[in-house]
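Researcher: Batch entry, complex prediction.
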Amino acid sequence: MSDGKPLRVESAVGSKGAGVSRRTVTKGLGLTLGLAAFGAAGLPLRKAAERISIDELLQKHYKELSDADFERVLQRLEREAQEQYGAPVEIKDHRPLKGVKFGYAINLSLCNGNGKCVEACHRENNHDRATNQSYIRVLEMPKGTMDMEQGNTTYSHAVPAKDSYYMPVQCLQCDNPPCVDVCPVEATWKERDGIVVIDYQWCIGCRYCQAACPYHARRFNWKQAQIPASEINPQQSYLSNRVRPQGVVEKCHFCLHRTREGKVPACMEACPTGARVFGNLLDPESEIRWVLENKRVYVLKEELGTKPSLYYFFDA
Amino acid sequence: MNSIKTAVVTPNITTSHAVSYPRFLLRALWHATDGSLGFYAWMTVLTAIALVGFNAWANQVANGMITTHMTDHVSWGLHIANFTFGVGLAAGGVMMVIPAYLYRNRSMHDVVIVGELLAVAAIVICLLFVVADLGRPDRFWHLIPALGRFNFPVSMLTWDVIVLNGYLLLNLHICGYLLYQRFLGKRPKARWYVPFVMLSIVWAVSIHTVTAFLYSGLGGRPFWNSGLLAPRFLASAFVSGPAFIVLTLLLLRKVTRLKIGSGAIALLVRIVRITVLINLLMLASELFTEFYTGGAHASPAQYLFFGLHGKTGLVGWTWTAIALNVLAAIIFLLPGIDRRHAPLVIGCVFAFVGIWIEKGMGLIVPGFIPSTLHEIVEYSPSLLEWKVTAGIWAFGLMIYTVALKIAAGVFSSPVEEPVAN
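Model: Structure tokens for the complex:
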């Protein structure tokens, strides 16, 4: 820079007169005021801090928790749910079953867009009531195209509409899931039975997985879910339908708290048309295997190489 | 070993770093907090804006990101838009470093620290925007390697964490070392900074390439899924960065006693003259591919430039950006523009704002519209998001101002006397 400049001693440095100290005092005052102002501006953070206990702040990743630690975590989460929603809940940890890989198939000739699956998911998985959140979206598609651009997810007329067919979309539990790859903190992973899960206590809420998912399967908790105590589903699991904290991502988990106990997902139980087929892909006698072997099935956006575990097919 | 040797020759130097480095920091603090009335007014205004932003962010953390206008359909918005632009600004400073160190351009060498300090301030801005976009900033530590679980090398976001923080450290070291040596009145030793400068050149390219890969690697987002994205990011960075530095140099000439040679400004103008055209060429190339091919792949571009199914939320933004970039290109082509400061300032502002829209709202938002299920949900930022944005930029400008002030002060102050004489 200005190497050749004549050197000039700044008067304020050289002297130690009253001017310096007054200036220093003014600076100190300004700094104190500034810091106080930042303290005041940050007051809402205290509200957030009150919600988060030290135990929660320092909690380890799901895969790193010891059995004893995990027991304490579950008890804490049950207590917090009780405090927050006024309903007693039981939070279990359902592990994948040996020799099971789940598959799902939806018969688009039978689905008539009645939306019972959407509602069942909403109730089963303790979704926010005001926003009508659900892991399932149903596209109403004009016959003669498979271009989703021509679909409509916000229809409210009687179903089935003439010349339309209906395509429910939820997490496809990909075997090659882009959402898992992009997560910077390994808060989401694929389990042995094929279900892609999220540790809601580890997710930092960056939402990169939402950008990466080609199927709009992931939801973010833009606020804390509001659910009346009487409507809370108390049968919960750590990786599935317990009420999620604010600021984290969630997604369909094939109702693992049901399916790992041998039941079917809530969306399938609610479907009045029998369009949904769920089962163990590793069991040659299962209905899902029969569908895959005998029907002309397809998957969504096969060209992306995501290898979904949820298939679609038509009867005729 | 070195210190033992010097201890024998000049005993007063041995204690020197332990004593003189704190003295250097004190002097830096003094430079940073002492100035004209205009300086205090500027810093007060920036502090006020930063306060508004900090308060808005605190409210966002307390009440949830429902306070933004982002949705599950458009899940990244103004925060990530600013982050992306900021990375470009940080990388743009390398357009001073390359001429100064690789081509040994004397006039650029004298002022290259202006670009390096811009990199520092811009990276701080980027990191703050990322933190502001986290749903759970309290879990930030999950991202720290060893402490948390760092999904390296699979997640491109972990690459970005490494390159951005690395670039910050590199530039802090280079600037800090040069200023400290100047404070001591010593010639900087090449081996303590030149290798880092060379590394920082490669590193500058890496930060914007990796940031582009964040988006271009997503197969489900056709608007981003283009091999041209990273080169386009670099071209636009080499417009916005040098344009901002030209503005800084013109301002420093007015308000400091630093000698800013015309050579540096002329060279930066020559660089922008080319990069702004390369950037427009790449844009045209992408648009040709999108629109000539058509189909679903072109839907986001259709939405961005002309609107889709009656939804036109970004059309005004994007044509403003195109107009600003084209006007900037014309202005920079004017002969002798580097000496005509009024139109030059306009050209720089146009280029800066044009790229801010193009690499921000014009890049991030259309990636989500239409959504992956081809729904069209529009997005425009909430007041809270604007406040956070203004606050972070104000804070970044405070850092830049203070850093420049320290640099200007150290370079134009008398050399520190040996400590124990």
